[in-house]
């Protein structure tokens, strides 16, 4: 009996489930009465015009009037012809230009956004058909936008206050008494200020590093360096010393200045630049780019974003620039100077004399750029031939010795001393194939740690560590010389 009950209960449950299934599947189809669809009200259409027929936009606000016209202009563009050659040609482009205020450098795409928002503008909802008091919606003194078509037809939008709950603004068409709400996104694009509609490019065209010919940088009222481009990949310093500049580090600065983009405009006709740290700017760049002279001043940082306040060419239009574009601002001057006291290409040198430790070693060099097999190297009378396999190891030691001579690296720029050229510990004299001579002389500093570097009898402003002469990794002269000299003795 107990087993029978165990079997009976599941059977009853199964029958109940089957019965429920048939009841549900045979219920009549519900009427097409989608409550979601019936309750969904079509958003009222405020404007519906063809954007391509739009010719002007007039924006009138309490203290600002802006007028923009859609025009066709010719611009120069670079294209690639069938032969793969880059050529410049004139093409026509339709853009928005400012009529008022005159000379406004407007961002055409921003005005286009306003036009797109307006041409098929829909309301969020109807607020009141015939309001008796427009002031309660901020529509007694609204922002007024007039969209004029090519045929003269005008569509006029009034934008009022933000709704108490946020997320929308009150608005109405000038030809309609009804007040609606429109989305916050659309409304705030209609309400953009002049500063929000300016183009954010710092220059009128794109530039690259090679377009710079001079850069001067001041930090906290003190000139850090003054550099000029001798040619595309060669920069030289006029200040603080006359020396070749570090091309890689100068090009980082030039590239940042060329590529920089404004974040936003902050204030036009600023009377008090001190609140932006721009009365006495922390950093000043004066540079020549594309044949034009520029002066870019960086002040304090915006508290929220950390971006720099800036002005261009001593103007009073304040804007912000990303601080990430200026990671080099506090770099020491040593990084702007070439790394070496005198870097001489071995192909250009015919003779090198090194006086050190009471002896003078004479190296004569003849590098054939056309055929390396014809190159020869002579050290203290022993000639090595590139064409002889047995000389290969000796030539390698000779080149390391040469690298030790030219590889004297700058440690610091020291300008507050006037050392005398007396008792130099090392003298290196280079003679080029054209007969030009350069003499590098190293005079020990009083602390015995470094050398003052002289070139052609004048202090360069550079110092270098004395331990470089014994640096194994950099083929220091006191390391590379004995290796070469001992090997040549064995050769003989």
Structure description:
The protein has 492 residues and is α+β, with helices and mostly antiparallel strands. It has 3 domains: 51-197, Sandwich (Immunoglobulin-like); 209-336, no CATH class; 349-491, no CATH class. It has helices spanning 2-25, 35-39, 108-119, 184-190, 194-197, 247-259, 392-406, 477-491; strands spanning 54-61, 64-80, 86-100, 125-128, 143-149, 154-162, 168-173, 179-183, 212-219, 222-231, 234-239, 243-244, 264-267, 283-289, 292-301, 308-312, 318-321, 349-356, 359-366, 376-379, 382-385, 412-413, 426-432, 437-444, 450-455, 458-465. A 9-stranded antiparallel beta sheet has the order 12-11-10-9-14-15-16-17-13, with helices on one face. Strands 21-20-19-18-23-24-25-26-22 form a 9-stranded antiparallel beta sheet, with helices on one face. Strand 10 (222-231) and strand 11 (234-239) form a beta hairpin. Helix 7 (392-406) runs antiparallel to helix 8. The longest helix has 24 residues, at 2-25.
């Amino acid at each position: 009996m107990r087993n029978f009950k165990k079997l009976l209960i599941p059977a009853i449950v199964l029958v109940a489930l089957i019965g429920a299934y048939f009841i549900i599947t045979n219920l009549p189809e519900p009427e097409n009465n989608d409550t979601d669809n019936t309750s969904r009200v079509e958003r009222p259409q405020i404007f519906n015009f063809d954007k391509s027929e739009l010719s002007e936009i007039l924006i009138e606000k309490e203290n600002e009037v802006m007028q923009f016209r859609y025009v066709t202009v010719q611009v120069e563009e670079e294209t690639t012809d069938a032969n793969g050659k880059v050529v410049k040609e004139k093409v026509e482009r339709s853009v928005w230009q400012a009529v008022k205020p005159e000379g406004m450098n407007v961002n055409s795409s921003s005005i286009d956004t306003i036009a797109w928002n307006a041409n098929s503008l829909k309301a969020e909802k109807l607020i009141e058909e015939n309001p008796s008091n427009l002031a309660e919606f901020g529509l007694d003194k609204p922002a007024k936008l007039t969209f004029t078509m090519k045929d003269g037809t005008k569509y006029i939008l009034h934008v009022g206050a933000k709704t108490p709950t946020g997320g929308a603004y009150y608005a109405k068409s000038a030809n309609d008494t009804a007040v609606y709400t429109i989305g916050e996104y659309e409304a705030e694009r209609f309400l953009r200020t002049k500063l929000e509609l300016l183009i954010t490019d710092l220059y009128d065209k794109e530039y690259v590093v090679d377009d710079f010919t001079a850069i001067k940088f001041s930090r906290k009222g003190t000139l850090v360096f003054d550099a000029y481009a001798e040619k595309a990949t060669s920069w030289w310093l006029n200040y603080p010393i006359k020396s070749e500049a570090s091309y890689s580090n100068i090009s980082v600065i030039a590239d940042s200045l060329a590529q920089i983009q404004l974040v936003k405009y902050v204030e036009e006709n600023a009377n008090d630049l001190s609140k932006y740290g721009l009365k006495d700017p922390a950093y000043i760049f004066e540079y020549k780019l594309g044949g034009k002279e520029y002066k870019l001043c960086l002040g304090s940082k915006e508290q929220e974003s950390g971006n720099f306040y800036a002005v261009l060419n001593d103007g009073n239009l304040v804007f912000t620039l990303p601080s990430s574009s200026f990671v080099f601002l506090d770099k020491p001057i040593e990084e702007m100077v070439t790394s070496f006291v005198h870097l001489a290409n071995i192909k250009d040198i015919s003779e090198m004399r090194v006086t050190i430790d009471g002896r003078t070693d004479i190296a004569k060099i003849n590098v054939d750029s056309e055929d390396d097999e014809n190159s020869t190297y002579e050290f203290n009378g022993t000639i090595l031939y590139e064409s002889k396999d047995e000389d290969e190891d000796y030539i390698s030691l000779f080149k390391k010795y040469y690298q030790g001579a030219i590889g004297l690296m700058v440690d610091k720029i020291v300008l507050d001393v006037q050392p005398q050229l007396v008792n130099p510990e090392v003298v290196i004299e280079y003679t080029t194939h054209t007969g030009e001579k350069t003499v590098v002389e190293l005079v020990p500093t009083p602390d015995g740690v470094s050398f003052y570097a002289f070139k052609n009898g004048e202090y360069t402003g550079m110092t270098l560590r004395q331990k470089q002469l014994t640096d194994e990794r950099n083929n220091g002269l006191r390391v590379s010389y004995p290796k070469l000299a001992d090997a040549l003795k064995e050769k003989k």
